[in-house]
Amino acid sequence: QSFDWNALASEFAGIETITEPTQVAKLSLDYYHFSPVLQPLLEDKRGNLVVRPQTEAEVLQVARICVKHKVPLTIRGAGTGNYGQCIPLHGGVILDTTRMNGIRWIKRGKTCVEPGVKLAAFDKQARKIGWEWRMVPSTYRSATIGGFIGGGSGGIGSINYGQLRDRGNLLAVRVVTLEDEPRVIELRGDDVQKVNHAYGTNGIITELEVPLAPAYAWVEVIVIFDNFITAAQFGQALGDADGLVKKLISIHAHPIPTYFSGLKQYLPDGKHGALLTIAESCLEPFQELVREYGGEITYQKSAQDGSKGTSLAEFTWNHTTLHARSIDGTLTYLQTFFFTLERVEKLYDHFGDEVMMHLEFLRVNGQAIPAGLQLVRYTTEERLNEIIRYHEEQGAFIANPHTYILEDGGRKTIDVEQVQFKEQVDPYGLMNPGKMRGWEERE
Ligand code: FAD
Q1: Which protein residues touch ligand 1 with a CB less than 6 Å away?
Q2: What Gene3D superfamilies does the database record attribute to this sequence (predicted)?
Q3: What is the pTM of this model?
Q4: How far apart are CA 336 and CA 234, in angstroms?
């Protein structure tokens, strides 16, 4: 006998509930299609209905109903993840957090927000009093803070603060459990790692305390180079220059700049490009560094004009892949920590045009290191795995974006603490089932 989803929907009385199939289908998917491997695995996955609670009390009500009927519950922020993080593998209820978008407070260096707060909308408020997020993904205009913590890793700002999982980048969370009698648990200190980047498999985050960064007057700059390795060395030097305040160092080997239709006039054919965000107060010494490396500045957008037009940030991180795929849909990508420029050079020479070099510099254990989201001319899954293997043999670390399994992406090992927390708060395994290997394979 099939489950009566309409009857279930009526139990959510008072909470916005969506059952209309095309809308439910839309709210079931994310940007998994960047991966030709995930595409066939996830394209037909759907939830049965969507709920949009507005308060923690309503979240508790949703949790209670899901537990009573033992139906899966998958949390969704803006649905901009790339690995199907929020795609329900086994149907059930989709809990959309976008109506929980209140900012509780912003004070010196930290904030307390609800999970559905959009990253860009928050920055607009916080900058009025001199603060902003420490880091944002290139999807900051639509992505939510809950989704960034749940399924993201880092981005613009990571050159200063590292990644979301680094200690200090998340201060506290409140989570709703899926026990017979759902509870609210507050996690602080290292305990936040129990739910940090867990794909919503072990608790519904209803509130977050997040540290902030001082908001500088940021200038966007494009610098071009004749030689890719020089561009990469320039990126490293800028990353290492402690006196130069920056937020983004994104380096693109030819022919990647040719995919940026909107930036054509600043990225002449054949050149390699650096897309940067620099503090206005540092522009003069920054220009000296550009000169030292023989670069040429072709574009500069002042802090004042910051909100006008498309931001350069929206050509970096995985937006690079987005632009490239809009021109050539056969392209896909990798996420790689190279750690050294020698390794970047070796892999650049080895793969040539098959793996186009896109570097993002970020801070790891106090050092600026080259990481990247290279574009791959996809042929077969076997070849893709061969490319990944070769990178690993050379000592690079690949956070594989072609899997929806939490541990098979960036982590590689089972996080015992996260699994144990799931045993405690989700004893029936209802939360985003099928994503956490450590849970699926226990015993
Ligand atoms: P969703 O995709 O809706 O959710 C992500 C995960 O978090 C899901 O597993 C979901 O279940 C879980 N989740 C959501 N809310 C909660 C909650 N309240 N409690 C518990 N779990 C929850 N990512 C980066 O890290 N850096 C980048 O630079 C970056 N660039 C991107 C560029 C493009 C073009 C695209 C398509 C994606 C990019 N991403 C990037 C991935 C993604 O956009 C970000 O990680 C984003 O922050 C996810 O937020 P979201 O609201 O869309 O989350």
Answers
A1: 30-31, 74-82, 85-86, 97, 115, 137-139, 143-144, 146-148, 150-155, 199-200, 204-205, 317-319, 322, 432
A2: 3.30.465.10
A3: 0.98
A4: 19
